[in-house]
Amino acid sequence: MTGEVAVLGAGMHPWGKWGRSFVEYGTVAARAALDDAGVDWREVGSIVGADTVRGGYPGYVAGATFAKALGWQGARVTSVYAACASGAQAVGTARAQILGGLADVVLVVGADSAPKGFFRPAGGERPDDPDWLRFRVLGATNPTYFGLYARRRMAVHGDTPEDFARVKVKNSALGALNPYARYRKRVTAEEVASSAVVADPLRLLDICATSDGGAALVLSSMEFARRRGVTEPVRIRAVSTVTPRYPNTMLDLPDIATDSAVAVESAAETFRESIARAAYEEAGIGPDDLSLAEVYDLSTALELQWYEDLGLCGEGEAAKLLRDGVTALGGRIPVNVSGGLASFGEAVPAQAIAQVCELVRQLRGAAGDRQVAGAHVGISANQGLFGHGSAVIAVR
Amino acid sequence: MSRSRTPVIAGWFTGEGDDFRLLGTRCSACASVFFPREDICCRNPACPGGELREVPLSRRGRVWSYTDGRYRPPSPYVSDPELPWEPYALIAVELAAERLVVLGQTVPGVTVADLTVGMEVEVVPGVLHEDAETTWTTWHWRPTGVAT
């Protein structure tokens, strides 16, 4: 086992489409996390920022941007980018610094200000960038990839559009209870079915929006937490940030083709499965030990995929798990009790941090109407572009 | 006025009509195939590293999955904002010999209603878009049961 770090504080800026700078969202979230921790910003030895590619230069140096906004105080600074897994890599970096003795207290911050409509690549003529190529050559937006995965599940596992809609119904009911969620309205299966098709077979209400938002965590050594009199903090026990293994035979964003399995047989487990397995191994637990899971429901169908990738059920059994209420609040393993991306929309560098914020609230027993009874082990999981993915396991 | 025909990306496909093929590269040491072409070094971590040679890919494959784009994609996809958006289908095609999956647009006129997972499709030359001087060419997937 690698060793644990304590979560002293968690803070968020509400998700929405506020039209303001990511710096504001991140700073609000950071101050909330520091307040929650009872830690003065000047005590923080290191700040790790999860970058946004949408804020110009300040977005690429997010750690320094937030440090300046909070008031320069000499802390060590790091900025990381890993697409949708940026926030988890920031947590992983902070943990490594704490366990390596480089800092006692680390502030992790991620925030984004999202454009209207589809995410798009950086400008210019850049045929050496797979993200640019998929738009230029195919017009393949993110939702078209989600559509491919959803159709594949329908063909292989017999999932139906009604199964997908059920995910939205579940998550929207939970998001309605979460003051940080962007969408606070319950959605019916009929509303999903009557929303416009975006990328067949997925409809508008199957696909997560892009949002503004900010999230932050104050992490510390277990020793620092003890000195502060925090005897039973939420602890981070695993941060998985593994890469795929060749050949990656799953068509992942933003690729136009998979690796070839002609010379090397593909591994028995997929990339997403390996992300979860690495986290379980590091934490010394298995899927049966989980109280709850926060997964990256970029689409309703992808939430079902995660059930299988996390080992909550066997391959092809996710829709049944959902239909049986196992992943609902009150079920054996509630998934996305925060409301998920269905209720938040994605604020890329903040999202994986927000997932951990929800785990923290749940493990503290402070989630109010969304509380998972007796929650003591939680996992978050996500996947992003360019071979990035993450899973964080928190315990209390 | 005649436009010149230019591939949207150089070196990804070649030929006309029945001779049209996607082009990848194959490692001379481990036989791994790469599309889009890999010209720097073999990406098989167990391979000592061979020479990467251009190789045409199989013309036919089977539909791994499919979808469509009902809304206009952002730039750098080129479309005329003056015209109403015409959705097109995208197919991910599994090539048995190369054991990889390649994405592509379908030929115009084929919609998701015409497609099923497992259906056989073949690669054909296609036009991505045209401007004043240039016809930008690409590859399209066409169900083998459908005539042009």
Descriptive overview:
The complex is a heterodimer of chains A (396) and B (148). Chain A is an alpha/beta fold and 396 residues long. Chain A folds into 2 domains: 5-117 and 212-235, Peroxisomal Thiolase, Chain A, domain 1 (3-Layer(aba) Sandwich); 130-203 and 237-395, Thiolase/Chalcone synthase (Peroxisomal Thiolase, Chain A, domain 1, 3-Layer(aba) Sandwich). In chain A, 37% of the residues lie in helices and 18% in strands. Chain A has 14 helices and 11 strands. Chain A has helices at residues 22-37, 57-60, 62-70, 86-99, 130-138, 142-157, 161-175, 189-194, 222-227, 271-283, 300-309, 318-323, 340-344, 348-364, and strands spanning 5-16, 46-50, 76-80, 105-112, 197-199, 202-203, 212-220, 234-240, 292-295, 377-384, 388-395. In chain A, strands 3-2-4-7-1-8-11-10-9 form a 9-stranded mixed β-sheet, with helices on both faces. Chain A is globular. Chain A starts with a strand and ends with a strand. In chain B, 0% of the residues lie in helices and 45% in strands. In chain B, the strands form 2 sheets. A 5-stranded mixed barrel of chain B has the order 6-7-8-10-9. In chain B, strands 2, 3, 4 and 5 form a 4-stranded antiparallel β-sheet that branches. In chain B, a hairpin with a 6-residue loop joins strand 2 (13-14) and strand 3. The mean pLDDT of chain B is 95. The chains are: A alpha/beta (396), B mainly beta (148).
> Largest interface, by Cβ-Cβ below 8 angstroms: which chains and how many residues each?
A-B, 49 and 49 residues
Oligomer: heterodimer
Strand order of the largest sheet of chain A: 3-2-4-7-1-8-11-10-9
Structural class of chain A: alpha/beta
N-end to C-end Cα span of chain A = 16 Å
Number of strands of chain A: 11
What fraction of the residues of chain B are assigned to beta strands by DSSP? 35-45%
Order of helices and strands of chain B: EEEEEEEEEE
Biggest sheet statistics of chain A? 9 strands, mixed
CATH topology of the largest domain in chain A: Peroxisomal Thiolase, Chain A, domain 1
Number of domains of chain A: 2
Number of strands of chain B: 10
